[in-house]
Prior knowledge:
By secondary structure, the chain is of the alpha/beta class. It is built from nine helices and eleven strands. It has helices at 26-36, 58-68, 84-87, 105-112, 126-130, 174-177, 191-201, 207-222, 229-241; strands at residues 2-5, 8-11, 49-52, 73-77, 89-93, 99-103, 115-119, 141-144, 149-152, 158-164, 183-185.
Amino acid sequence: MSVELEGVTLHLAHPDEIPVRWVGQEEVMRQLLAAWMVVDRQDLPMNPRLIGKPGVGKTTLAYTAARRMAREVYILQATVDTRPEDLLVTPVIEGEGKLRYVASPLVTAMIRGGICILDEGNRMSEKSWASLAPLLDMRRYVESIVAGVKIKAHPDFRLVATMNDDASTFDLPEYIHSRLQPQILIDFPERDEEYQILKENLPFGEEEILQYVVSFLQQAHAAAERYTVRDGINVARYAMKL
């Protein structure tokens, strides 16, 4: 799958297909969908960021919201090593000195009018964020120095950044902070929601084990321990194997 822009052929990424479903906490789902809504011809979608502890379901929420809108979903995993060209267009040598320009999941979503989830965005450096600054305001484009093209976002393009609330991340530069709004906090789910999440992910799980794990997680939340429902799923799965 490829497109031609300004005489340059860009090879596009494939959308992500993951078997997940958001359970409970419909209020944060409503907030995310509202941020993406356009209410007037002159209005623009917002670029929300989902903040919470690792494992509380930020990526699952974003993916499910995108699927509710019946859009293609592209996930780009950010790391401390993510470079501007990783976010945009990467040149790949294709025999006999030829270059093949490969669009990132983000650029592919921009071109196809999909939704990009920039996962764990606050692990990126300021230099990488700077390359996205024009995309996150009214300009809605990026410039690839490598390929020498300016890429404008499709009107249906949407972006969300997930960010972990932990010590292993960077502070966002202020000019990016103001562009990534609103900030939506994902907290630990209530007991019944946590049980439903476990049941959704482990439909074969024994009831006694699921209830035990839910009780453990709820006590961990009350004690400000960092155990999340993702940990609970793994604990329950391992207990069943044992």
